[in-house]
Amino acid sequence: MSEHTITDPALIKTLSAVRLGSKFTPELFEEVIENIQENYYTISAIEKAGISTRHFYRKLQNEPELTQRFKEAQMQRDKIRNAERVEKAETELARRAIDGWAEPVFDIKGNHCGDKQRFSDACLIFMLKKLKPEVYADTPQALIQNNVNVVKRESHELVSEWREMLGAKPVENEQVQDIS
Fold first, then answer.
1. Are residues 71 and 108 part of one domain?
2. What global pTM score does this model have?
3. How far apart are CA 170 and CA 167, in angstroms?
4. Which of 4, 44, 129, 150 is the most exposed place for a label (fewest CB within 10 A)?
């Protein structure tokens, strides 16, 4: 058994209730979890335990506690898998950006006459963005242009101007209280 053996009495009771009339048992569920933690793909882990995937997922639909545990096991497995993949990708990125690769050069007759060392500018840019984000990371730049002229005017002049822009009729002998 794994270090995550089910000890919760309520969960054991739930699994036992689910087991009635089916092949799905707490032991089989634990076996699926262990298979996933041993880096099996999900379907392979379920089938290795001797359960059909359809039956397994049908049983999980009604059991949120089991579903949560199942998802956690998958996430843990994927985190380990992805860490290795990311490391390999970063190594390849550095190789292409810094070391480059040899590209064959041919003459007009098709004879190989040497190699030219090529580098990837895009890979170098991504490396710099990761290694020194404060300098090379994409940061949104906003250009704000402010063309506002502030002129002290009488409030009745402003109100008249706004009325004219809005298409309202001008009011004669308008009394507007100055709020300044």
1. no
2. 0.43
3. 9
4. 150
- Amino acid sitting at position 135: V
Provide long-range contacts, Cβ within 8 A and 24+ apart, for 175-180.
178/154, 179/155, 180/155
Sign of the dihedral defined by the CA atoms of residues 132, 138, 140, 143, in that order:
positive
pLDDT band of residue 19 (cuts 50, 70, 90) is very low
The residues, any chain, with a CB within 8 Å of residue 59's CB and separated by 6 or more, are: 18, 22, 24, 66
The Cα 99–Cα 28 span in angstroms is: 50
Whether the per-residue pLDDT at 22 is higher than 80: the answer is: no
Domain of 126 in residue numbering reads as 90-136
Q: What is the pLDDT of residue 75?
A: 92
Q: What is the pLDDT of residues 26-63, one digit of tens each?
A: 888 899 999 999 989 999 999 888 888 888 888 888 88
Assess if residue 126 is contained within a domain.
yes
